[in-house]
Specification:
The complex is a heterodimer of chains A (about 950) and B (about 190). Among the domains of chain A are: about 650-665 and about 675-740, Sandwich (Immunoglobulin-like), CATH 2.60.40.10; about 760-960, Heat Shock Protein 90, CATH 3.30.565.10. Chain A is built from nine helices and 78 strands. Chain A is elongated. With about 190 residues, chain B is mainly beta. Classes of the chains: A alpha+beta (about 950), B mainly beta (about 190).
């Protein structure tokens, strides 16, 4: 193969030291976590590898083998290796598995099939990557790298220039491989046919020679490097620099870095051996690092699923981390934020009102401190920070206070419409004016100028709002002021006119608690009777109804963040709308992340300058993060292999025979947000075109007739199947063979052949019959011709004349015989066969006539047993013809008398005569014998034989 | 002694014949102690029967100790339990640690170094890849090594009967002191 060019650190890398800039504020925001312990007989199972496949399953390589996870349950994938799975690679629908004994397997159905790999590894596989086109790269603990293709492994280790054979991890970029080893990083590049290795160690600025993991930041030429004892460094491939995020001389306190997961926005999450999960924010030459400790756990691998969950494989199982979408600011005892009555964001702190007391939450430490800053005479119901950073405090029954000169709260007095004991439910501001809402309508006031505040305009039931009770004021991005009223629905004031949506709009509710505007500019309203509504293109619609079926009357607030999500707060749950997926992410106590109850005071949400939304709850504050990436929470569904008569068949099989018609399907829904809310429905196209709704993730169809089918299954987070996920499986059940076209064609050909054969046979039979007839006619003709042969007639008549002269009495007899002869010949010559007796009668007549002519010179001796005479048949006139032939061809005279012998056995008749040839041979049309032979051939297979035997001419005819 | 000879042979074999014996340092004195702090009982024992060697230029090492050689238990009964119930020293008579030294340290120079040893730690027949930090002092051709580390019983498939879980900690603290000297050329 190619040549290796080992170059030990040709490229010296400049070491740049970066400081960790710790943001303590961000430190206070911790992700929620949920543990999914994997146990085997009460012993925790360690997760070594994590991957998410294209279809959606999360694959876990553990000490107890491979598992798949669909968001609800772990399914063990059976294997025959029985070793810990230490690496998993996913390429398309193929899942590869590396084991601690060096074996590599591939998942098919619910089984891992071990692969036989020639020269394959025998040491634990630490990392596995499917590089496409069937190419697999494996890193091992003691044997370096292996490049595997077509069942053959090519090793790449210290013998080839690798600095150490212990490979922890590697990153792939084009034709390059960055390998993390015990002796630093090996940058292996393939150029043409040459492989060159560049090594980076501590001499080149690497903080630690043991590089335990390496990850590429997508879309950049930066690599994040985790080390054994010197933390994290960033390798810049473009400028060939390595930057440690540790200060020089600073100790890394978090343990060996096992995995680094880069995420959107130049951030990354790192998992360490000592149980620390660190969020790293990189920013133009600086990096921030925010650790969270999970004592007792060793964190092994991280994975970001497409719904935004971070999954962390630990030595005790799987941990779900919400850090990319939901955070938690936890407060220590004795504070409980369940009773928060109002909240507002104020310059990197939160102002929180607990009944009459106002606190400032400062995020200095992991546990934020709460500083008491103000006490009102009544419950604080609303807070507002205006454009000049002035705090406004509204109370229930004690009017309005506002901040003056930084730290004094002044009670607003002198506004008649407001009154000193006013209740202020909502405070808001436009560029020019400050707006107050309460139980007596809405007051539009001027900002304080020289300590004076004037009423600009009073809005109320009479001016056009329709109600004096206004729960919330919301200025939208277009300059309109929206009002959530009790009694008049949603009201909008554009500076001139009031617009109303109450019972006439789809929400149909006159009581509206809360209003917000999302990123797309649509307004959302939280209503009492009709739940959550969105105003989109001039229409109000309830997007939540398809999911819940019934409106939830206990909605208390709605607020949108800056990345398009809309958060609505209910007594029992919190829903977060994901506009791209068109689904709600649903949070409740069953989610298992510790959100049990929230404040049910109306409109108790706050938004920071970046648009993140804050909600108080029992243990602190929930932060709904702006999403840095487009997460998709839509569920997916997957059809497992079909079953035929409950026996699994390969999913690649799509054609079945006519009797393989009891087909079943199991399917599996995948959701990493709310698996418990999945709804399924399925349809078998070609069989029934109605959706069948089910909770059972299986369907079966007995006795399917032959045809083409498509099994479709859909999954959705709502029972209305708005935007479902779908999978389908097409298959064909073949018609039985006697209904196939081929069968019809073959059958027709067969029938045609039969008919043809029949016709042919019949034709042959008819032909033979006609030939027989023809032969017979020929014979008859020949015979008659011979009988009316003038010679015979002359001889007969001459003999008769002599008889008349000499023996008159004999003449009569002679004439009778002659007449008999002709009559018999005419009678019998038309038949195929006649009894032997009849034939002999003809012969007798003939002999009588001939003996009259020849006298004693002709002797015919007939010796036929009686039983043969009675039972057997013969071709008519055959013997007569033979006798005639004998007389015709031989000398018959007194000197040479001719003796003809006719004998018979059961099966044949023999005519013999001695050969006494005439000198002048009569024209022997030879036709006689041939004719007999042919006539017999048509009747029987027994042969007619004739020929010379010694001095005799012998003819043998079969008797029938 | 036969064992040691085999060991040295192995090291020389592994590291190549070319490198001379001067690169091999062998253990002349070493002590391994361990203690387990459980709520109800503290177990401690020590052994001086450590054998092993370091190849200083190849930076490889191999150490081995006989389990049965540990002495100093609280009672003979405790020792019996240790050997029979937990360590099964009949089946697995030796514990071993072999591997490589990560830091590129010149052991022939006098000085103090903190290094990491990486290799396979075999206890109770179960191999584990471990990185163990060591403090070494090189002086006048001798290398003194000091190291403390923790062994998790679960890592080595050492089962604690539930009834004595209060008497045995799942974490065992191990401390090693040893002196290596250059192998005299023979």
């Amino acid at each position: 193969m190619s040549t290796f060019v080992g170059s030990s650190a040709h490229m010296r890398v400049i070491l740049t030291v970066l400081l960790i800039v710790c943001s303590y504020f961000a430190n206070a925001q911790q992700p929620f976590v949920r543990d999914f312990p994997l146990t085997e007989t009460h012993t925790p199972v360690k997760v070594n590898a994590l991957q998410q496949g294209a279809i959606g399953y999360i694959w876990l390589g553990t000490d107890n083998g491979l598992f798949s996870y669909n968001g609800s349950k772990f399914v063990k994938i059976q294997d025959s290796v029985h070793q810990p799975v230490t690496a998993v690679a996913v390429a398309g629908k193929t899942v590869w598995v590396g084991y601690s004994n060096g074996k590599i397997g591939v998942v098919s159905g619910q089984v891992v099939f071990p692969l036989y790999i020639k020269n394959g590894p025998s040491s634990s596989v630490t990392s596995l990557h499917a590089a496409g086109k069937g190419l697999l790269i494996a890193g091992t603990e003691e044997q370096g790298l292996f490049v595997i293709m077509n069942g053959v492994a090519m090793p790449f280790n210290t013998a080839n220039g690798l600095s150490d054979d212990f490979v922890y991890d590697f990153a792939i970029s084009g034709n390059r491989l960055l390998v993390a080893t015990d002796e630093g990083i090996n940058d292996i590049s393939l150029a043409g046919n040459r492989i060159s290795v560049n090594k980076y160690t501590t001499r080149d600025g690497l903080p630690d020679n043991i590089v335990s993991c390496i990850s590429k930041i997508p879309g950049t030429r930066l690599y994040l490097i985790g080390t054994q004892e010197k933390g994290i460094a960033i390798y810049d491939d473009e400028h060939k620099t390595i930057n440690s995020i540790l200060d020089e001389g600073e100790e890394w306190a978090y343990g060996q870095v096992n995995y680094i997961l880069p995420v959107a926005g130049y951030r990354a999450w790192a998992a360490t051996e000592d149980g620390y999960l660190l969020e790293i924010k990189m920013n133009n030459g600086t990096a921030e690092c925010h650790p969270v400790h999970y004592p007792g756990k060793s964190l092994e691998k991280l994975l970001l699923d497409r719904a935004g969950n971070i999954w962390c494989g630990t030595n005790k199982g799987l941990m779900m981390v919400t850090g990319e979408y939901l955070r938690n600011i936890r407060l220590g005892a004795p504070y409980s934020l369940y009773d928060v009555t109002a909240m507002v964001w104020d310059n990197n702190s939160l102002l929180v009102a607990l009944k009459k007391d106002l606190y400032q939450l400062l995020f200095k430490d992991t546990i934020p401190s709460m500083e008491h800053i103000f006490t009102a005479n009544a419950n604080i119901t609303s807070l507002f920070i205006d454009k000049e950073d002035r705090l406004w405090i509204g109370t229930f029954g004690d009017g309005l206070y506002y901040e003056q000169n930084g730290n004094t709260a002044i009670k607003l007095e002198g506004i008649e419409e407001l009154g000193e004991d006013a209740s202020v439910l909502s405070i808001s501001g436009t560029p020019n004016n400050i707006w107050l809402a309460g139980l007596k309508g809405v007051e539009e006031l001027s900002y304080p100028v020289d300590g004076k505040i004037n009423l600009v305009k009073h809005h109320g039931k009479k001016t056009g709002i329709g109600s004096d009770y206004v729960y919330q004021l919301f200025p939208d991005s277009k300059g309109n002021m929206w009002m959530a009223t009790d009694g008049a629905g949603v009201c909008m004031y554009d500076g001139q006119k009031y617009y109303h949506w109450d019972s006439t709009f789809a929400a149909g509710s006159k009581v509206v608690y809360s209003i917000t505007e999302d990123k797309a500019g649509d307004v959302w309203a939280a209503t009492m009777q009709r739940d959550l509504h969105r105003y989109h293109n001039g229409n109000w619609e309830n997007l939540r109804l398809p999911e819940t079926q019934f409106p939830d009357i206990n909605i208390s607030a709605v607020m949108a963040n800056a990345s398009g999500q809309v958060i609505s707060v209910y007594q029992r749950c919190i829903d977060e709308w994901y506009p791209k997926s068109r689904y709600f992410r649903h949070y409740n106590s069953a989610l298992g992340i510790g959100i049990d109850s929230t404040s049910n005071a109306l409109n108790c949400l706050a938004k920071d300058n970046e648009g993140n939304v804050y909600l108080p709850y029992q243990h602190g504050i929930i932060v709904f993060k702006n999403k840095t990436a487009e997460f998709d929470i839509a569920p997916a569904v997957l059809i497992a292999h079909p079953t035929i008569y409950s026996k699994a068949v390969s999913g690649n099989k799509h054609k079945f025979t006519y009797d393989e018609n009891y087909i079943g399907f199991a399917f599996d829904g995948i959701s990493y947000t709310n698996h418990e809310r999945l709804n399924y429905r399925y349809m078998l196209e070609g069989y029934n075109d109605d959706w069948i709704y089910t909770n059972d993730a299986a369907a079966s169809f007995p006795k399917l007739p032959p045809g083409d089918y498509k099994f479709r299954v859909q999954v959705a987070l709502n029972p209305a199947f708005d935007h479902p996920g779908e999978d389908s499986y097409s298959f064909t059940i073949a018609a039985p063979f006697w209904k196939t076209n081929l069968f019809y064609v073959l059958g027709s050909i067969f029938v045609f052949l039969l008919l043809y054969l029949y016709i042919k046979l019949r034709e042959r039979r008819l032909k033979s019959i006609s030939r027989l007839q023809q032969e017979r006619m020929m014979f008859e003709y020949e015979h008659l011709r011979s009988q009316v042969n003038p010679h015979f007639l002359f001889n007969s008549l001459y003999a008769l004349s002599i008889l008349i002269e000499e023996k008159k009495e004999s003449a009569v007899d002679y004439t009778t015989h002659l007449a008999d002869l002709y009559r018999n010949m005419l009678t019998h010559s038309k038949k195929d066969l006649i009894p032997l007796k009849d034939e002999l009668e003809i012969l007798e007549n003939y002999i009588h006539i001939q003996q009259t002519r020849f006298g004693d010179a002709l002797k015919v001796k007939i010796d036929i047993p009686d039983e043969v005479l009675e039972t057997k048949k013969i071709v008519p006139l055959a013997i007569q013809l033979l006798v005639e032939n004998a007389i015709k061809h031989n000398v018959v005279s007194a000197a040479h008398p001719l003796a003809i012998y006719i004998t018979a056995t059961k099966h044949e008749l023999t005519v013999r005569n001695p050969i006494q040839p005439k000198i002048s041979q009569e024209k022997g049309e030879g036709i006689g014998l041939v004719n007999i032979k042919q006539r017999y051939a048509l009747l029987t297979k027994s042969p007619v034989s004739f020929g010379v035997h010694g001095s005799q001419f012998v003819v043998q005819l079969p008797l029938l | 002694m036969r064992q040691l000879a085999f060991l040295l042979y192995m090291i020389v074999f592994h590291t190549g014949f070319a490198s001379g014996q001067k690169d091999i340092y062998q253990v002349t004195g070493g002590t391994i102690r361990f203690h387990s702090d459980a709520p109800l009982e503290m177990i401690k024992a020590a052994s001086k029967n450590l054998i092993g060697a370091v190849h200083v230029s190849k930076r490889t090492f191999l150490f081995r100790i006989s389990i049965a050689s540990f002495q100093g238990f609280n009672s003979p009964r405790q020792k019996e339990h240790f050997n029979e119930n937990y360590m099964e020293s009949d089946l697995f008579p030796l514990a071993a640690y072999s591997g490589k030294i990560i830091e590129d340290v010149d052991f022939t120079k006098d000085g103090e170094y903190n290094i990491r040893a990486k290799g396979k730690l075999t206890i109770h027949g179960v191999e584990r890849q471990r990185i163990i930090k060591c403090h070494i002092v090189c002086k006048d051709g001798t290398i003194s090594v000091q190291s403390d580390f923790i062994v998790l019983l679960a890592d080595h498939n050492i089962k604690i009967p539930r009834i004595v879980s209060d008497k045995l900690s799942p974490e065992i603290n191990v401390s090693v002191n040893l002196v290596l000297v250059q192998k005299p050329s023979s």
